[in-house]
Amino acid sequence: MFGWQYGALLIVAIGHIQPALGVKANYERFEQFFGQEYADFDLRVRKFNRTTMTLNGTIRINQPMDDTAVFQSDVFLSRLGNQQFQHYPMHLPTCGICQFFDHLHEEYASVVASIINVPELAECPITVRTMHIIDQEFPKDVLPDGLSMGLWKLVISAAVNETVVVRFMISVRLDDDWGNMGL
């Protein structure tokens, strides 16, 4: 019914794919604003080693969800990384949670495989469950070419009958990775 999984898989997808050459991407923060009665994102960003931040935690689906909840996203960029965000003209496609999971299974099978207890391909409605994300790095391969360096924020909302019922945010810092290129 609601798209907690949309955000969860996006987060894992962002954190799992191997880094792009010359760009370092690290999670900065994850926060759920409301909607815990539908899905509770108990996710934390933690320092994995000296240079890497990972996403860890549990996503609890508290009631069955189908494509009636429509997910949409807004993207913001702080070029200086100082929390002064400007809206960026880019977003993820608007879709229901079942459609989103099917797309993830088809396009990002390795990301889906790393989530414990993830819904199966074509499973709809998504049943009540607990999923686990363990030490997932940001997947740099999902980033489009030409993105500006800085602090990026993705806000994901789920609406039912045009009423927003779930909202959460994830932020990722993109930096030049000259130090790891052997120059």
From TrEMBL:
Keywords (A to Z) from UniProt: Signal
Signal peptide location: 1-22
PANTHER family in alphabetical order: CHEMOSENSORY PROTEIN A 29A-RELATED
Record's protein name: Uncharacterized protein
Taxon lineage: Eukaryota, Metazoa, Ecdysozoa, Arthropoda, Hexapoda
